[in-house]
């Protein structure tokens, strides 16, 4: 091999070596950039997770039971549509219901189920009718959220204008006196009593007349 041929040979070897080094360098740079990007993404995801969990907890705060003294209950009597009425003719059946108010500044849980609801009708000091004498085999507890500052009403239920006893509380029991006789309705809900001597007349146990 002549000197010129040897020179060309080594030049070509050097060029091939330089190109190979450049290729390896580019590959190494690409892998480094890719690993760094993946690591940054993983780090970002880990940092964002607590914020997402915290936001979820804030959207669904835990609701506690209503504190004693924060809930008031009022007995109501009227027609089947929930309109208050205090005078009933012989063809009308009185319907009774209650309103319950959360007087606190926060939402709270309260049991408004039939198992803890008790209506009573009195005349003077005499107990005329009590829902405790009714068939309560289907009664149930129903815990729900009472929104802060709001008043909710139960569905109206009829009173057959009869006395209750240990034999029942509905049609077939002994009729009460009518012809202008006066009666009072009261209610107990989950241990909270309606108040016959409430400060506001609208909150007192209602007096009604049967004709």
Folded structure, characterized:
The chain has one helix at residues 3-59; strands at 71-78, 87-88, 95-102, 108-111, 117-123, 126-130, 143-146, 151-153, 157-158, 181-189, 192-193, 207-210. The chain has 211 residues and is an alpha+beta fold. It folds into 2 domains: 1-61; 71-210, Intracellular proteinase inhibitor BsuPI (Immunoglobulin-like). The strands form 3 sheets. Strands 2, 5, 6, 10, 11 and 12 form a 6-stranded mixed β-sheet that branches. Strands 1, 3, 8 and 9 form a 4-stranded antiparallel β-sheet that branches. The longest helix has 57 residues, at 3-59. It is globular.
Provide a brief overview of the structure:
This protein has 211 residues and is α+β, with helices and mostly antiparallel strands. It contains one helix and twelve strands; from the N terminus they run H-E-E-E-E-E-E-E-E-E-E-E-E.
Instruction: Characterize the main sheet.
Output: 6 strands, mixed
Radius of gyration: 40 Å
Question: Which residue ranges are poorly predicted, with pLDDT under 50 across at least 5 consecutive positions?
Answer: 37-56
Q: Kindly, what is the distance between the CA atoms of the first and last residues, rounded to a whole number of angstroms?
A: 137 Å
Number of E strands: 12
Query: Helical amount among residues, as a percent range?
Result: 25-40%
């Amino acid at each position: 091999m002549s000197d010129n041929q040897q020179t060309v040979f080594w030049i070509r070897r050097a060029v091939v070596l330089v190109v190979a080094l450049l290729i390896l360098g580019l590959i190494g740079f690409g892998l480094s950039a890719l690993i760094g990007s993946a690591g940054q993404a993983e780090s970002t995801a880990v940092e964002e997770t607590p914020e997402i969990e915290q936001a979820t907890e804030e959207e669904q705060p835990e609701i506690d039971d209503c504190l004693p003294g924060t809930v008031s209950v009022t007995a109501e009597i009227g027609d089947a549509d929930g309109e208050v009425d205090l005078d009933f003719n012989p063809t009308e059946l009185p319907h009774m219901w209650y309103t319950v108010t959360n007087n606190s500044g926060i939402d709270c849980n309260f049991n408004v189920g039939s198992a803890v609801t008790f209506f009573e009708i009195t005349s003077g000091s005499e107990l005329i009718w009590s829902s405790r004498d009714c068939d309560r085999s289907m009664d149930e507890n129903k815990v729900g959220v009472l929104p802060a500052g709001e008043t909710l009403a139960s569905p109206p239920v009829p009173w057959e204008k009869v006395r209750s006893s240990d034999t029942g509380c509905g049609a077939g029991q002994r009729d009460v006196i009518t012809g202008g006789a006066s009666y009072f309705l009261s209610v107990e809900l989950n241990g909270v009593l309606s108040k016959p001597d409430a400060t506001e007349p609208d909150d007192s146990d209602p007096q009604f007349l049967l004709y």
